[in-house]
Amino acid sequence: MTTARLNRVIDALAAGRHVFASFASADPATAVEFSTTDYDGLVFEMEHKPWDVTALRDSLQFLLSRRQIHAADSLAPAVTPLVRIPANGAENAQWLAKQALDLGVFGIVWPHIATVEEARNAVAACRYPRLPEAPRYEPAGLRGDGPHAAVRYWGLPNTEYYARADVWPLDPAGEILVAIMIEDQRGIENLPAILDEVPGIGLVLIGEGDLCQDLGHPREYEHPEVEAAIRDVVEICKSAGVPAGIPHVTPGNVVARLEQGFSWLMPNPTRMNQAVDIGQKWLADNKAGASK
Fold this sequence. Notes:
Elements: H1 8-14, E1 19-24, H2 28-35, E2 41-45, H3 53-63, H4 66-72, E3 80-84, H5 94-103, E4 107-110, H6 116-124, H7 148-154, H8 158-164, E5 167-168, E6 176-182, H9 185-197, E7 203-206, H10 208-214, H11 224-240, E8 244-249, H12 254-260, E9 264-267, H13 272-291
Parallel strand pairs: 1-2, 1-9, 2-3, 3-4, 4-6, 5-6, 6-7, 7-8, 8-9
Helix pairs in contact: 2-3, 6-9, 9-11
């Protein structure tokens, strides 16, 4: 059961499929609710919620379903868990990524990345050190060694965990997703250089709320200047071949976001089924049209 990819979010992105994900508090009861949804990924929200590693540890366990694992004959969680850490990119908070990864999460969402240096730190913090002559050495790994809980959560022996706990797509077989959030004009200006100079970034996620603030239009998600900035980000990502993601997806805008080229979409749980149904229908219709 250990040969197939465990991170189903990466599996989808690598195959060019779309991912539907959500933010949620690190809370066991919430994790149980999400464990039976159709979401591909769940980002435990710890930027604007407390950094509570005990709650995160317990939530990871309650997100698993023994019945699902048995039926699928795979160790891969049906809903892939990730964490948005509380520190902004400029704080270089490697310890937060280390603690979350050591519990077994499959990816880290880094808020407020605005420079090449911040992006490089984000990737390096999610990698183990290796010899300089090793393949894919840069960005040089900074993660400390203590994956005991992660090994148990992934269901792998230590040696296999070390081999697979690298970042994708830098390591094509890597199981760790590094997502950077672009949340201001400075980040957008530097994004081409970030994606050109820092290998290992698996997803660029737009922080619409802070972007609105930075542009002088708080919470005006549909303001023309905000939309123009969003288009800039997704076009830069397209040029670099890096998936782009966006929150605040609704039944009313999901088709527009798919048309723009977003691969990662975050509908609110209360509108999840409706937004996904509309999106999947659009994807199916366009796939059928393209095959004619």
